[in-house]
Design brief:
The protein has 2 helices and 4 strands; from the N terminus they run αββββα. By secondary structure, it is of the alpha+beta class. The protein has a 4-stranded antiparallel β-sheet. The longest helix has 12 residues.
Length: 70
């Protein structure tokens, strides 16, 4: 499937802890070939980042360990 078509039909989701105001969040969507798309909820019309599944898994692991805390 063409990536653009796949993104148009992607099943976007955001964290359950995100607020209901619609902003300040990112959304993710699983794609074919293990890829993950990431977009800003405040700019859903902008092109999302698309990363390999291994990159997403490393990011999630680092986030859980606090590696990105400011």
């Amino acid at each position: 499937m063409d990536l653009t078509a796949e993104l148009n039909t992607a099943a976007w989701r955001k964290a359950s802890r995100s607020g209901t105001n619609g902003g300040d969040c990112i959304e993710v969507a699983p794609l074919s070939q293990g890829r993950v798309a990431i977009r800003d909820t405040e700019a859903p019309g902008q092109a999302p980042y698309v990363v390999r599944g291994e990159v997403w898994a490393a990011f999630v692991d680092g986030a859980k360990k606090g590696e990105f805390d400011f």
